[in-house]
Amino acid sequence: MSSTSNSTMKHRRLLLALLLSPLFAACFPEETHIDVDPAMLHGKWLKVGTQEYWRYYDSGSGATWDESEGKTEETTNLTYTWQLDRDELTHWFRGEQDNQMVPKVYTIKEITSNSMKWKDAYGTTSTYSKVN
Amino acid sequence: MKKGWKIALISLGSLLGLVVVVVAVAMYLVFTPSRLTKIVNRLASDYIACETHFDRVDLTLLSTFPDAGLKVENVYLVNPTPGAPSDTLARIASLTVGLDVKAFLSDRSIKVHQVLLDDADATLFIARDGSTNFDIFPSSDTTATDSTSSLPEHIDIEKVKVSALNARYLDQRSGLDATVQDLGLTLKGSLRNNDIDADLTLGSQHIALAMVDTATGRHTLGALIRGLELDAKGGMRDESLDAKASLGTRHLAVRMTDTAGRTTLDADLADLAASLKGDGSTSLLSGLLDLTLGSGTLQAAGIDMVNATLRESKRDLLKAKVPFIADLGRMQLALNTASLQLDQFALTADGDVQLPSDSVATALDLTLATDGAWPVKPLLAIVPAAYTKPLAGMDLDGKAKLEATVQGSLSDTTIPLVDAHITLADGRYHQPSMLPYKVSRINGDLTAHLDLGPQGKSHAVINNLTARTLDTKLSLRGRADDLTGDMHINADITGALPLKDALPMVPDTMPLSIAKGAADLDLHVDFRMSQLQKMALEKMVASGTVKVRDLDLTFDTLRALAPSLDLSLQLPAKLHKSKLADARIKGSSLRVEMPNKGLVATVDKPNISLGVNNMMREQLAAAFVVMVGETEANLDSTMVSLDELSLKGTIRLDSTQTDPLKRFNPVADLTTHSAVLYMPQLPDAVRLSQLSAKYDRAHTDIRKVQVKLGHSDFELYGTIDNLEDWLDNKAMLRGDLNFTSNYADVDQLMDLFSGLGSDPDTLELQRQQSKVPSEANPFIVPKNVDVTLHTHIKRSVAFGNDLNDVAGSLTVKDGVAILDQIGFVCKAATMQLTALYRSPKPDDLFAAIDFHLLDIQIDELLDMIPVVDTLVPMLAAFDGNANFHLAGESYLFADYKPKMSTLLGSAAISGQDLVLMDNSSIASIAKLMRFKKWKEKDDKIRIDSLSVEMTCFRKEIEVFPFLINIGSYAICASGKHTLDNTCAYHLELLKNPLLAKVGVDIKGNLSSPKISLGPVIYGDFYKPEKKGAASKKALELKAAIRQALEKNVR
């Protein structure tokens, strides 16, 4: 009896949600955006708590590597070109065989001369510190 | 000269006549010496046209009794003549003439019985203009005298005695200058009709003769005789001769020069003694010449005919005892066992000799024979050095016996022919420059034909010649032509020898050693001596067989052993045209070892044809054709076994190299039909059912190789380049091969070839440094090679998957393996794979793939490539056929696990008419989204189309928004999950009967996600006119991903 009651309750809630979904959708808060100066990206960044590095050159190229698995900027296969549109940072990885295109898009939420935080489309944030 | 002597004799006769007249006058009118002297001196001016002086003229009876004699003393004839060496023509101390008194008294005839001349000097001179100092008698007309003079019919000389006569005759017209000193002579004889009796004794201490070329003033002839003694006695009656003579001289020297002043003859003989006697008619004179020459020297045409050995010999230099029968009219001699002995070497001669005359040249028809066996070494020792130059450095000895015939004329242009039969016994020969052996026990039987004329050719036939050297026995038969020129030898040689005896003949440059073995020779040779001396083997001819037993030899680093081999030789080469000689080797078996390389090969029924170059001058270069039966070869732990092998090619030895390929530089054409190769690196044997290849240093042409290796069988053809340089680490091994196979176990093949070309020590060190687990054994791509395999494999297994109809190229290039657009069929799907794999370190591998599966069943895809399920977990919910494109790359650990921080990939899946597999998650979502009637009547959930793009970056898989149409519903899905099973997906209901827009988030652990309502993001995702920025961006990314993936699909 109890389970039937609970199920009925869920159905009612879902139906309500579906009916109100446009309203809910409209009520999800809009993302706020910042304008990031590309120059602030230039340099080498270390993901906090890891040995994962990202390098941004002002030419629009860059590379990332993880020293925990023995890679360096010179030996990494993960090189990319990057584009910054306000706070949307897009990385294009082509791979060694130049046969693929792997985009990685992040939204920069905070950036200073020493630190940077970005978030991907699914809400995962990562924090980086500038290293030289 | 004759004319001069005639003038002198006539003058002397006239003088004697004058004396006779004076004596007669003295006898009858004057009687006293003073009166006689005055009368003679007064009358002399009437008869002698020069200044004369007779110191004393006297009649004598006692000293000439019974003849009456007239003796003059101190007579001087002085006739100064320009150019003459002396004014005095003659000085006579004493001259006595005995006259037959009885004849004078009976018929008034004057007969001179005795002439005694003692102590006289004379100088006879003929000037260049023909004037003389002895033409002193007015009535003397030499021309008239010459034409009318003749011997009287009767000459009866009781006594002519000359003592202490010194005379000189100088003829400037002919250049003759003759001197005789202290001449003594006694002569007694008579001439009555044609009967002659004579008894002559003559002696002189010094006789000299010189001839000068009047044009050049050079001496052309000089002769000197000292101590001459001649004793001749004999008579001739009725043309029957009975005479004997002996001649001796202490010293005889003769020297002749040509017009250029070169000495043509220089003889200096001592103690020459000769006797000659004969009796019989002049046409049948039986005689004996006995001649002895004690010592001397003789140089003719610059050749010292009497060499030091002869000069130092204690024997007489020359002895001859020649019995003969002579026909003096015809100038012919018949010799009967004449003996000629030079030093110790005696020769007998029988036959006829034609002595020269004005119309007939010397001719010989003689049979010669040695008086037994001559010792060869002493014989050679007395041969003039000029004739023994070819024997320089030769030690030759033995006992030689000669029988010869000499026939023909002997003149300036002709030399008699000689046919000789020579036997040689117990000989020995050693001439290191010609033959590096001491040859002994030489026994031979030879015949020779010598034609020593200017155009003559001489030859010898070797009926049999046997010899021994070391432990070798040799027998030779044949012929030698052109003996005096460039000797041409054509001979058959048979023999038996231990092979080590042949080593001295092997050039030092040839690395050959012989432990044991023996051979029987049967050879034919045809060559010239000049070719042998120059080792011009390319011009020589040789052929024959050598049967070898118990062979054990080492050539360079190759050792060969055989119980028996038959070796056929052919020089010059006929089979291998470009080579010097052919050799064909056949045998029952042959074992070849290369100890330093661990090579051992046992060959059954070897049949080897070799063409070799001139190894005497160059390093070995050979062409070969090898056909062998069952063969087994071991190289270290590698073994090859084959049933038959055909190998054709060349080798060229480079002794400076140690590597076998570089040392022998083989070029070979190899064919075998059944071979098995056992290698320690391979658990299974490599079975070659057919191998046909051509190899040289730079290029290997593999015509066909059929291989069974492990589970795999394959056939190869193509080319391999730079094999030798690759082995020497000087160049990359390059290959372009076609690889066709009915079945290939790729995993096994990879294990077999893993690490080829890499240094095992370096690999092991890298494993230790990287702490690679022992069980991890990654494939190490061969380094320093650039080989492309164009594959066509009907069936294969790779990484546990069955692959069919695999076609494409596999390239291994210096540590990188590349599969280039390999196409194959797998479980009803058409696939195309491009992959790259490299292995710089065992713990830092790299792999990249470009993989396309067209029209593949999704469950088969997941079964074949499980990682796809990891990348796209929701794919397991679909059923049907799809196109799948995947690109990815990552560094790998030794166990092939990816280094996640380097993982980068992208994939695209598209399909039509798929079925969504109902499961709890789907049911939950459908329930959450209140799906009604979304299943078909057969209870299946059908999806019209699906197009998914996703990427993998490190541990994160991102699925870009894609649309799923299920009946009247449309759902957009996107999200990400990580390889550690956390997920964040978002679904939106874009179309439904209620037109409601619902977003659902799926988050948390992938196996039990939390599903909840979420925001609406892609509401207008597939409505271009209403598309927002996020949708546009997402579509752009999807398009970029898919385009990049699909561009490599063939």
Helices, strands, pairings?
The complex is a heterodimer of chains A (132) and B (1050).
Chain A: H1 2-27, H2 38-41, E1 43-47, E2 52-56, E3 61-66, E4 79-85, E5 88-93, E6 102-111, E7 115-119, E8 125-131
Chain B: H1 2-30, H2 33-47, E1 51-60, E2 68-78, E3 88-99, H3 101-107, E4 112-126, H4 142-148, E5 154-171, E6 176-192, E7 195-212, E8 219-237, E9 240-257, E10 263-281, E11 284-300, E12 303-304, H5 308-312, E13 318-327, E14 332-342, E15 345-354, E16 362-370, E17 374-375, H6 376-382, E18 395-410, E19 417-431, E20 435-451, E21 459-469, E22 472-481, E23 488-498, E24 512-528, H7 529-533, E25 541-555, E26 558-571, E27 581-587, E28 589-594, E29 599-604, E30 607-612, E31 621-628, E32 631-635, E33 638-642, E34 645-652, H8 660-664, E35 667-672, E36 675-678, E37 686-695, E38 699-709, E39 712-721, H9 723-727, E40 733-745, H10 746-753, H11 760-769, E41 785-798, E42 801-813, E43 816-826, E44 829-841, E45 844-857, H12 858-864, H13 866-871, E46 878-879, E47 881-892, E48 904-916, H14 920-928, E49 941-953, E50 956-966, E51 969-978, E52 982-991, E53 998-1005, E54 1010-1014, H15 1029-1046
Parallel strand pairs in B: 4-5, 40-41
Antiparallel strand pairs in B: 1-2, 2-3, 3-4, 5-6, 6-7, 7-8, 8-9, 9-10, 10-11, 11-12, 11-13, 13-14, 14-15, 15-16, 16-18, 17-18, 18-19, 19-20, 20-21, 21-22, 22-23, 23-24, 24-25, 25-26, 26-27, 26-28, 27-30, 28-29, 29-32, 30-31, 31-34, 32-33, 33-36, 34-35, 35-37, 36-37, 37-38, 38-39, 39-40, 41-42, ...
Helix pairs in contact in B: 1-2
